[in-house]
Amino acid sequence: MSFRWFVLLSPVMAERRLLDQLFGEIAANFDGRSFPSTVRVGHGDLQRLPELFQQPFLRDVEQLAGRYRGRLSFGRGLRSPKTFDSHANAGSLLQLGLTVFFQDVAGSVPGSAAFLRQLENELGVTPGSARLSAFASPGDDGVSCHYDAEEVISIQLLGHKTFHVAPMTQIEHPYGAQFGPDMVAVENLYEQAREGFPAPDDAAFVTHDMAPGSVLYLPRGTWHRTEAREPSLSLSIVIRPPVLADALLGWLKPWLLGDSRWRAPVYGDRAAHESALKPLLAELAQRLSEGAETPILSWNAGPSVENSELLNVPSSRISWQTTASNRARIEVRALDQDWRERVTLDTEIPVALLPVLAWINQRPTAFNLRQLSEQLPKITPGDLRQLLELLVKAHALRLLVPR
């Protein structure tokens, strides 16, 4: 039997509507395989941009400050690169003449979540790669010279400011955190800077004047500094997909921890541990050399229930009750990071799928789609897959690294 009971979760090819609205003709440079390696800029009325950026409170820094409850950083960028985290009200900091960085405004700007997910789909990046932040500066400040280890799309909403930009050539594909003159180097920058830490001394800067409606794209590793000529507010779409190293490490550690031999504490005779390590490394090398059979990228880009094992989340609960017309309402409750129980799923499914939930609730060990299908042969694998995907999304089941 087969049921059409909720929207398919598999991604579809998205229209390029957001990219076209943001960049117009130059949106073709975002081809879904890579980002442009040079700065792109476009100017025009705010009305041409997606509706997200046309909300009235985004024309008033005080209104945004009043709505915002997230983390803040502040500083005097034209005088020092030092910034400080704060829980103070952003409006008060702005009244002191400080530049304020709203680290994540998605929760304060209605429609942000849907906008970011659609943009990620258009760009072909992993869900969760994009975030939305904001910068507000008085008329005599800005941000000091630095580069970011991520792509940035800056949308000017209020006032005029100037960007001074130049390519950073010392490190290709920089990773980690931002860096600039007199800034603290994060730990993972040292391996990237064997030929010397980047400096903008000889960089050829180009000036871009930003007005409300202007959009500026900065590739990762672009030197930039800003100067506000009047009170200024801009939103930044920050794109930070996993790099190949993230993909490998994200897959490798849980894969290793699934093998008790890799969990052995290193006590006592070092030579004995080195001897035991050699065959493990040989097995790992063979595993990594299997090429297409190693689901490293697919795991980090959202693994499929079809090639993974699943395990019950012990702090989550699945419950259900039958309703009319052979339907059942199911509910999933899961603990969040603050140990608070949340309803993560409340929907209806056909009654014929309830044996799946009963089987899962009684399963103490990991399982896969094939095993579930063998236990419940009257239910199509497609329906099983969709239900499993829904339970994973609701944090009732956890996908395990394919072994």
Summarize the structure.
By secondary structure, the protein is an alpha+beta fold. The protein has helices at residues 17-23, 61-67, 90-95, 112-123, 244-257, 270-288, 296-300, 354-361, 369-375, 381-393, and strands at 40-42, 72-75, 83-86, 99-102, 130-137, 142-146, 151-158, 161-167, 206-210, 215-218, 222-228, 232-239, 309-312, 317-322, 327-335, 341-350, 397-400.
SSE blueprint:
Layout: H1 17-23, E1 40-42, H2 61-67, E2 72-75, E3 83-86, H3 90-95, E4 99-102, H4 112-123, E5 130-137, E6 142-146, E7 151-158, E8 161-167, E9 206-210, E10 215-218, E11 222-228, E12 232-239, H5 244-257, H6 270-288, H7 296-300, E13 309-312, E14 317-322, E15 327-335, E16 341-350, H8 354-361, H9 369-375, H10 381-393, E17 397-400
Which features does this protein show?
about 400 residues; alpha+beta; Jelly Rolls; Outer Surface Protein A, domain 3; 3 domains; eight-stranded antiparallel β-sheet; four-stranded antiparallel β-sheet; 17 strands; about 25% helix; globular
Q: Portion of residues in helices? A: 10-25%
User: Which structural class do the helices and strands define?
Assistant: alpha+beta
What is the count of β-strands?
17
Output the strand order for the largest sheet: 1-10-7-12-5-4-2-3
Instruction: Report the sheet-strand fraction.
Output: 15-25%
Total tally of structural domains? 3
Look at the structure and give the mean pLDDT: 87
- Please give the largest β-sheet: 8 strands, antiparallel
CATH topology of the largest domain: Jelly Rolls
Tally of alpha and pi helices: 10
